[in-house]
Amino acid sequence: MADTNLQEYLAFLYCVEHGSFTAARQLHYSQANISRMVADLEQDWGVVLLKRDHNGVMLTSEGLQLFPYIQALGNSYQALQEQLEQVRNLQSGLIRIGTFSSVATHWLPNLIKEFQKTYPNIHFEILLGDYTEIQHWIASSRVDCGFLPLLGDIQLETISLGQDKLMVVLPEGHPLAGQGQFPHKALLDYPFILLEKGEQSEIRTFFQAYGLPLRPCFVTLGDYAIMSMVESGLGISILPQLILQRCPYRIVQKELDVPAYREICFAFRSQDSLSLAARRFLDCLGSLRL
User: Fold this and answer.
1) How confident is the model at residue 287 (pLDDT cuts 50, 70, 90)?
2) CA distance 201 to 104
3) Is the pLDDT of residue 54 over 60?
4) Are strands 157-171 and 251-255 parallel, antiparallel or unpaired?
5) In angstroms, rounded to a whole number, what is the distance separating the alpha carbons of residues 154 and 148?
6) 149 contacts 165 by C-beta, under 8 angstroms
7) 3-state secondary structure the chain
8) What are phi and psi of 95, to 5 degrees?
9) Distance, CA of 260 to CA of 164 (rounded, Å)
């Protein structure tokens, strides 16, 4: 059986509902076109659906049997149109974001709060991971988009959000706590605690760039675990400035004597792959420039 244009179903439903071909002009077709569409439907199916006389139209016995199924199709189409309108007007939707802890802690809560003032019915799914995981989630469509540092060759579209300075963190009472900038070569003189965020990290990249051998005494994924360990005097570390906002630990933050930063970006597969809700979220990122 050949596919039948959905408009033929709708024309039939309107005719049955209003009892005439004339009333079906709500579909923006002429009476003749409406009549022809119903006739084409009957011809395609080999069934007479409507009786026609000077009083209008009414269902045949075959039409009566088939009417509930055609009506169900019409209702489904109407529900689809209503849902589509909601999506277009962002009355519903889900944005899935992959991110790391400092962005999740200090950026996303306020950003989502502001976004939902305009789009209160858009919901979010936030996945926390390391840099390697986040890239994989975006590439595999597990999430729609994500936040990443620009490290190595990222096979994704990216929008830079600015540079996040890398800071040396020391326990209070450290011999260099009272000095100005921390000499980068002095990183080798004290036990170092490494923040590891995946196969590539800004800390490893920094050490490589300045020819420093990296020999950590501890390695962990937890930003706050490092702060606690530094506070306890177990070593020193380097942490991004973003995660050090509202730091609850008694530690000292120092700038390095050489340039040290990570560039944070918003990443996604392509503009075309983003849902309308995700594109609107992207529009809101201008306020996040570092």
Assistant:
1) low
2) 18
3) yes
4) antiparallel
5) 9
6) no
7) CCCCCHHHHHHHHHHHHHCCCHHHHHHCCCHHHHHHHHHHHHHHHCCCCEEEECCEEEECHHHHHHHHHHHHHHHHHHHHHHHHHHHHCCCCEEEEEEECHHHHHHCHHHHHHHHHHHCCCEEEEEEECCHHHHHHHHHCCCCCEEEEECCCCCCCEEEEEEEEEEEEEEECCCCCCCCCCECHHHHHHCCEEEECCCCCCHHHHHHHHCCCCCCCCEEECCHHHHHHHHHCCCCEEEEEHHHHCCCCCCEEEEEECCCCEEEEEEEECCHHHCCHHHHHHHHHHHHHCC
8) -115, 120
9) 9
pLDDT at 26 (0 to 100): 60
Residue appearing with tokens 């380097």 = 238
Asked whether the predicted pLDDT for residue 217 surpasses 70, the reply is: yes
45, amino acid identity: W
How distant, in Å, are the alpha carbons of 166, 171, 217, 248 from that of 228? 18, 9, 15, 9
Residue 59 and residue 46 in contact, taking contact as beta carbons nearer than 8 Å: no
Tokens of 97: 């974001």
Residue 82 — very low, low, confident or very high, per pLDDT cuts 50/70/90? Answer: low
pLDDT: which is higher, 189 or 25:
189
pLDDT in tens, 110-164: 999 999 998 888 899 999 999 999 999 999 999 999 999 988 778 899 999 999 9
